[in-house]
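Q: What does the assembled structure look like for these inputs?
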Amino acid sequence: MNFDRHRRLRSSAAMRDLVRETHLNKDDLIMPVFVDANITGKTEISSMPGVFQFGIDSVLDEIDEIVKLGVKSVIMFGLPDHKDEVGTGAWEDDGIVQQAIRLIKKNYPELIVIADTCLCEYTSTGHCGVVKDGEVLNDESLTYITKTAVSQVKAGADIIAPSNAMDGYVASIRAGLDEAGFINTPIMSYAVKYASSFYGPFREAADSSPEFGDRKGYQMDPANRLDAMREVLSDEKEGADFVMVKPSMAFLDVMREIKNHTVLPLVAYNVSGEYSMIKAAAQNGWIDEDKIVQETLVGMKRAGADLIITYFAKDVAKRINEGENF
Ligand code: PBG
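A:
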């Protein structure tokens, strides 16, 4: 009888470790942080158990915990104390994210602080750009998005991560940063951003739901694969330094395809709805949270992700510190 004995390489834990192809380590993790101009202390996000919004008075406590666990980068989101048509709170010098970045970089200069660059938390319409006659205008929005990026870097951001899904934002931000003298600040583009229902809990966390309509006129159709390639090709041409796929779990095929076609570092965003689903099922005792988190995040690495933005970053770092082989 002649057949292959695949089980030879699965015969013991040590044997399995010997042939294991994919690992996750702490350097791969980026932790999201929400800072809210309207609160002091911290408020738990009801649809994201274990994730909090922080007031400017308490954000350093969270950062301290993150740093001590050995997570080396965070991505910042802000909830401003006022919203208007052009999202002024996103780009003013004393905006909530700018204040938080200044404070964090002063106290933790080594930490990589990434700024999410979008208008949806700051516009009265809740859209990611400026709206006229019910339409989200592309080129007009770039002006404000670029102002936002420049002000975030002025405040000390190490990386700009534009998530607004307008066309040409990489080119526009690159030109704006270069002109302001920030030639060395990288752009982590949310290149492949689907119009996804998995962002639901985030919109509570960041108070950024659109007042009318949806984001399908600028974010991508989840049914499309080639559109993802077109987005990546554009962003590479425009000067992106990283490309991202978002969400993750339903888009691992797209991640792999992009990994096979780009030489840029690839980022996976394990989004809010993905986090909440796992938390909810685990709280009901239906799944084993630790094991599911491990399988999910290692799956993203196997699919080609070099870095993962995840609300589980602190939990994972803790487990790695305790000696778990991730
Ligand atoms: C801002 C932005 C969103 C997310 C990251 N940046 C929401 C959206 O596009 O509606 C979602 C992140 C998550 O769900 O965890 N545009």
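The first helix runs from residue 13 to 19.
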